[in-house]
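I had to read the description of the data format several times before I understood it. Each protein is reduced to its one-letter sequence and a matching series of backbone shape codes. The format is easy to grasp once an entry is in front of the reader. For illustration, here is how one protein appears when written out as sequence plus structure tokens:
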Amino acid sequence: MVNCKNCGAPLTLDSPVCPNCGTPNPEAQEHLKKLAQLDKQYQNTRFEVVNEVKKTKKGYNVLTFLVVILLANLALIPIHGASYEIADRIIASRKDTEQIKAEMDSWLEEKNYDAFVVTYDKYSVDYREYEEYSPIYYLASTLVNIKENLSDYLYGKNLYSDPLVRGCQYIKEFKEDYERYRRHDYSDFTMKHLDQIYQEYDACLKTFLKLTDEDIESLGSLSNSEVLLLVNRRMNDEE
């Protein structure tokens, strides 16, 4: 615990600026700088270990190297809870990044978005290493939620809530997210899969909810209640 040099308010190392007067907290800035340096050391060490593991292919060497990394990082990091974060990263890094990407790519090529979302969640991927997959994941997750709720509604699987209401909320959220992602300068890989997910979303709404192209185009500008009314009207018209 330190005090602000300007107003004297108590500060912690998690406070980059004083919450009272806004004066920068140099101790916090130095703390973050040290953590960044330690993270860089960890990434370099991890790269060396992964290469060594690939060469040896022997289980006892894998365990030995992981223990060495864990002990080295615990010795370097001061007691601010960062040691637990490093330990978690070491455990997660045992799965080679390229293998995880290859697994996710295979699901995307098959357009199996349920499996893609499960794989992304399973490995709790790091945003920096999987940046191009992040918007794909969020859009695919919303599509999965739409399908699950529509299935519950159409086949009466959920008797204790209204899945159509939730489904319409996800329908609007998907449309807003997709339009926002389209305005970003993402890679061709990311945009390709975002567009493919949108095509499945479009087909799903037309097939199960009987929405028209004009209906789908307007979803982003409607409120949740207006989306629900539109869906009900189209389904009743079809009947």
Summary: The chain has ten helices and two strands. Residues 100 and 123 are 8 Å apart (CA to CA).
